[in-house]
Amino acid sequence: MLADYEKAQPGAGSRIFQLTEKEQDHRHNLESRNLTWVGTIQIIGQCMGFLLGLAGIGGGIFLLYSGKSIEGYVTMVGTLVSLLLANQKKKQQSRD
Fold this sequence. Notes:
By secondary structure, the chain is mainly alpha-helical. The protein has three helices and no strands.
């Protein structure tokens, strides 16, 4: 098949290979950048989840210290349950 291109225009076969190699290099570069961003976004998400969990538990402890035991326990348990459910959902998505 490449011989037909060479007959029609000399050097066409090598040009096709050069274009294909450039396209492959471009695609590899895009995939590499995508993986870098995905990793960065995952780390940021984990940090934000940690900070939200810490704020919820800290808020619950503050409420307990302030004498509002029911509200404090509800806040802490709600925070822990939401973190556990988010973790469970992430594990389930990674299996699929």
